[in-house]
Amino acid sequence: MTPWHLADDAQDRDGTHALVIGVSDYRYLPADFDDDLPTGAGETLGLTRVTTPAISAWRFAHWLTGERGLNRPEAPLASVRMLLSPSPAEIDATPALGDLEADVVPLPTRDNVLDALYAWRDACNARPGNVAILYVAGHGVQLSKDDSLVLLHDFGRAHRPILDAAMDVGSIWRGMAGPDSAQLQYYFVDACRTRPGLFDDYLSTRAGVAFDVTDEGGVESAPIFYSASPRTLALGLPADGTLFCQALLRCLEGEAAELDANGRWAVSTSSLVRHLPAAVDRLAASHQAHQTAVVGGLLRDGVFHYLPEPPEVALGIHISPEALAERAHCRLADFSGRQVYDRQPVPPEIDLTVKAGLYALQLEVESNGPPVLRPFLAAPPLHREEIEL
User: Of 111, 307, 339, 360, which is most buried by a Cβ count within 10 Å?
Assistant: First the structure.
């Protein structure tokens, strides 16, 4: 399978290798609940085609390769393999999805995904210093509270085992272990995690897309970020993509950035653990919905990427009592001495958008004692200072 993106020096140094899969248009699922099943369909679990996973995968892949995307000098982006089956609604929203070349962005069928997985694993395992990224979005089911299966484009085909075209993410995670494997890995599973009652009737069944798991040891770090908690749904909006992908991109673009020991703003395993579930929760709440992202896997810290410049922060300053705020003079400067805010009088609530970093606040009221002097670090996504005069 030809990678959708391949760096010129991909084989010559440590690099990051990504596999991105988005399944919206299912060959054997109806477009709507009232429609007849397509020819050749078997057990479909009552599912229909969807309108958000493929565009979400597309946007994640384009973030990786974008001008302000993945920035990890120790292991720069080396390859991206992408498999998509976009829905008509997604193609209407992003016409480029309708012009995909099948040999570069093939459909995420069972066989194509298996080929891509093994090619991705070979690339990742070429050097232990490589970084592995897997992002997969589509219909998801669970057999137990600990697993996560994502259904592929040809799921529901008649005369096949029910999960023949399902990808077992846990098996992939366990099969990517060993001393020759990429020692830093990231898994993003953007799918529902419900258990259809039909599985109660089966003594055993297994996913058709899986890795054999050997006893070759582990890796240094391999977190798994699930878009939904067990037994719950992952949500999305047509044309906007999944809530999880929207929140993930916001985190990667700055909301999950933290200042490291060398003064760089970095998104890391630990910062994603802290910020991504909260970002999903906030985004779902803004749509009067509920969705809880959860984290599993091996959580030893590692850097995902460095921001090229400090991210923006929503800064709020509350001054009380209001009567003194009306007589106050407020100065805010960054630590280079550049004045960011200088006003007299000031409102009791000051709302600013600033670049993340160290700031010095000076607030004084004539004939009301010495000025308030306060240094602080403004870190994303928001920072609030409470000032009592």
Answer: 307
